[in-house]
Design goal:
- With 156 residues, the chain is mainly alpha-helical.
- The protein has seven helices and three strands.
- The chain is elongated, with a radius of gyration of 26 Å.
């Protein structure tokens, strides 16, 4: 029978996770070995548990917490509950992508400003104050309140 089972190290290597992570999942009651050898403490996992670990890792990569994953794998989540959780994660990822696109555009703007700045050629020669003003002129400020405060400070 043990030929059909996998050791913790084998599934850890297969999925590219640490044994410690699998032990944590076991401690939290998410993945349980089908057998633990009483003599040497080796943990053995069946194909079903390998599939559970695969699902766990996929859900974790999508941003689900271990508690949420446990609930799903234990069958405590209804179809509607799972759909709602998935929709929330999708929305969170869409917002993260929008934020990443905005930050990318900001970086492109800074790069463009840097390429077009004559003062940037002598960046190391500028005083701290001159360098700070140059950077302020180049940087894309993402927080509106910070932008307003900076604007007010500049015009005082």
């Amino acid at each position: 029978m043990k030929k059909e089972l996998m050791l913790i190290g084998e599934i850890a290597d297969f999925f590219g996770v640490s044994r410690k992570a699998i032990r944590l999942y076991e401690k939290k009651g998410i993945i349980k070995p089908v057998e633990v050898d009483a003599q040497n403490g080796y943990r053995y996992y069946s194909a079903a548990q390998v599939q559970q670990l695969n699902a766990l890792l996929e859900l974790k990569a999508l941003g689900f917490s271990l508690e949420e994953i446990k609930s799903v794998l234990d069958g405590d989540t209804t179809k509607e509950g799972l759909q709602e959780a998935l929709a929330k994660k999708r929305q969170a990822w869409q917002e993260a992508m929008e934020t990443a696109r905005y930050k990318s555009a900001c970086l492109e703007n800074i790069l463009s400003n840097l390429r077009n700045s004559r003062d940037a050629d002598k960046l190391t020669e500028l005083t701290d104050d001159e360098r700070a003003w140059l950077l302020v002129k180049m940087v894309c400020i993402e927080d509106v309140r910070a932008q307003k405060a900076l604007s007010e400070a500049l015009w005082l």
